[in-house]
Amino acid sequence: MILGFESSCDETGVAIVRCVPTGVPVLLGQALYSQIRMHQAYGGVVPELASRDHVRRAIPLAREALQAAGLTLQDIDAVAYTQGPGLAGALLVGAGVATALAAALNKPTLAVHHLEGHLLSPFLSADPPAFPFVALLVSGGHTQLMRVDGVGHYTLLGETIDDAAGEAFDKSAKLLGLGYPGGPALSRLAETGRADAYELPRPLLHQPNLDFSFAGLKTAVMTTLRKLGPAPTEVQRADVAASAQAAIVDVLAQKSIKAMKATGLKRLVVAGGVSANRALRAALDDAAAKRHWRVHYPELSLCTDNGAMIALAAAMRWQAGLAQPATRYSFEVRPRWDLMAA
Ligand code: KG4
Ligand code: ZN
């Protein structure tokens, strides 16, 4: 029974999963608190405020998660936490709370890579994937395509050379005067817009490699808005939003198709905050239907950061014999940490 803490950015998440020797671990209970409203006043995440809020939330959320699972601390066999990547101070809170709790219970700690949590999160969905598969990892800080042959067996196929897909959503949203986080707000505005209203760049689309580049999109959105003058109409704003979303989705979908072709695999897994995006899901579902492959997503509630994916990743590593349980009760965090080195 693994209790897991997520605190790498602006969500505090706690969850309990039960290991299942020959199957997918089972989520027994979870609790989540999003700091979005607190950071909204500043237009983005304020790291110091994030850390302080994790301090306030971690223990009450752990109680809530245990209660939801119908368990007590005595039932817990190991305590997992996000070791990185993420905000240093925010990570330290989760790591500190998890380590103190484990020491008090005389149980081991398990350090988890945040992106491995995202990557494995579709295993908690009603339609879990099977290995091997291609993974498209699209979050606020990362955009990667990889080949996944099993837990801990990851081969990088391509990644962004500048901004992440989530960042492209967030920056375009900011230019449109939408609040933080920009992804959901931009996609809502895009619903009434025309995706072909403005021609925005799709960098590296026709390059043979599987890398991405999104920094140019922000500039193009800025230029487009400037041409519309100081007071664009609601219709124009929706058209810009829809065109920006289409550019991001187009590149993500085309590169995913390329990765499927290059590997010859028939399963695609999409994870990370941007995997909640409806236009992206529609484009990938369409591509999969045409080419006879399957696409797997996390449940909508598990696309953005949460504790369940951290407890799950710890459990799956444990079951695969890859976990390195620690009982020295010292800890370090890794604000920058490459998944391929985990
Ligand atoms: O995975 P996540 O919660 O945090 C990181 O690990 O970065 O991803 C957050 C990112 C943000 O950039 C947010 O704008 C984006 O995911 N996002 C979306 C949607 N929901 C969240 N982007 C597009 N459409 C959405 N529906
Ligand atoms: Zn994340």
Plain-language structure description:
The protein has 342 residues and is an alpha/beta fold. The chain has two domains: 2-120 and 302-341, ATPase, nucleotide binding domain (Nucleotidyltransferase, domain 5), CATH 3.30.420; 131-297, Nucleotidyltransferase, domain 5 (2-Layer Sandwich), CATH 3.30.420. The chain is built from ten helices and ten strands. It has helices at residues 36-40, 47-69, 88-105, 114-120, 165-175, 182-190, 215-227, 234-263, 278-291, 307-319, and strands at residues 2-6, 11-18, 26-34, 78-84, 109-113, 133-138, 143-150, 153-159, 267-271, 294-296. The strands form two sheets. It has a five-stranded mixed β-sheet, with helices on both faces. Strands 8-7-6-9-10 form a five-stranded mixed β-sheet, with helices on both faces. A hairpin with a 2-residue loop joins strand 7 (143-150) and strand 8. The longest helix is centred in the C-terminal third of the chain and has 30 residues, at 234-263. It is globular and about 65 Å long. The two termini are 23 Å apart. The mean pLDDT is 97. Bound molecules: 5'-O-[(R)-(carboxyoxy)(hydroxy)phosphoryl]adenosine and zinc ion (ZN).
